[in-house]
Amino acid sequence: MLRFFISYPYHLVDYSDRIVTKTLSEIIVTQADILPITCIILAGGKSSRLGREKALEKISKRSLIEHTIDCLSSISQEILVVTSKEQVNFIATANLKAKLIVDSYPNKGALGGIYTGLANADAFYCLVVGCDMPFLNEALLHYLIGLAPAFDAVVPKINGMTEPLHALYSKDCLASIKQLLCQDRLAISQLFSLVKTRYVDKDEIIKYDPKQLSFFNINTQNDFLKAKALMYEAHKTSSVG
Known about the structure:
Order of helices and strands: EEEHEEEHEHEHEHEEEHEHH
CATH architecture of the largest domain: Alpha-Beta Complex
Shape: globular
CATH class of the largest domain: Alpha Beta
Number of strands: 13
């Protein structure tokens, strides 16, 4: 097997000292391909603003969580869905191509879900997303993964706002997350000052996702209707093309 060392940001170097110049995107994809990743989908929220459980709400004949799994399945063979004890049987009815795990820290919000996923993951690095993000961008996800080896967390940051539920975390975050949970400090943003964090800014993001739809999530009925319209337009464009 040919073994490679990634020399950031422009070169792919093998151990025979032969240097092959690649584009930045090619290098990121190569790094993502060789780095084991577990994908974690958080599906334990109460969906109070939508008024119903959103994970299995359908757009274009597939549920929101299935759209998410479809994208992540090209990135990892291990996909974990972290949900609450109250919701696990409901989500299990969908027979998803993912492993269901009950949140170890109920009523601790998304931070508890991240901890549960990381603790149960086979891989050292984990990509964490919400179940209500139907427009994930595979190229952007590969870019985040490519940055992972030098950091504990890789987090998009747009206009000063972080996107912690579209981010990469390593198992080295577990101790700090547990500390926050025990102190009942549940804002995920508090973690980033405790671990080595790489923020991914807007200029980097728009190279892969110009409209930043990766971060579109569904909380209300209006969001749901907008997602349906966006999906319809995307399908119409692809069929014309």
